[in-house]
Specification:
about 180 residues; alpha+beta; 3-stranded antiparallel beta sheet; 4 helices; 8 strands; about 15% helix
Length: about 180
């Protein structure tokens, strides 16, 4: 009788990856994007619109102003069912905790750094960072740095209300410690 030891093959643990982990950010792979429509209609197209405006500094850079007494904003563009706003933030300026009513949106940091205080705590957003949010999403955006910042906001449908909330997430976090 031939006694050969049985061996068990070594196997690597199985890792389940999401489509995004496998493919990467489809919006950053230009050849996979559909040609831009004249007016966006989907969330991905609004994200693409924000990225294209961000990439074209000549379109917005000369318009930016900084105001120490109030947040400065400028409506950059409108289209059927959406509008695009340019905002500047001096050090220490914040939006207060708010939502955007019935509007969804895309926020893109164009220059500098902003901190978003949302339901999951603070998130630092550097130049190029984007946030997509649904109607009713409440957050506060603050410039916690010593430098100015600029952001671009696309709202769809166009912003008709911005209800303020009584306590900012930053203050709620500080109170719960």
């Amino acid at each position: 009788m031939n006694s050969t030891p049985l061996s068990t093959p070594l196997t690597a643990p199985v890792t389940v990856e999401s489509d995004l982990q496998i493919a990467g950010d489809i919006l950053s792979v230009q050849h996979l994007l559909q040609p831009a429509r004249e007016h966006p209609a989907t969330v991905a197209e609004f994200v693409g619109l924000a990225r294209s405006i961000a990439a074209n500094r000549a379109e917005w850079e000369h318009l930016v102003e900084y105001d120490a007494t109030t947040r400065w904003y400028h409506r950059l563009r409108t289209g059927p069912g959406y509008e695009v706003w340019l905002l500047s933030w001096v050090p220490g300026q914040g939006s207060g905790r708010h939502d955007h009513g019935a509007s969804s949106g895309v926020m893109t940091v164009l220059d500098g750094e902003l901190t978003e205080h949302g339901p999951r705590g603070p998130r630092t957003l550097g130049s190029g960072a984007q946030r997509v949010f649904a109607p009713g999403y409440a957050h506060e955006v603050v410039n916690d740095t010593l430098d100015g910042a600029v952001s671009l906001h696309v709202y769809f449908p166009g912003l008709t209300e911005m209800p303020m909330h009584s306590c900012s997430p930053a203050r709620s976090e500080a109170l719960s410690v």
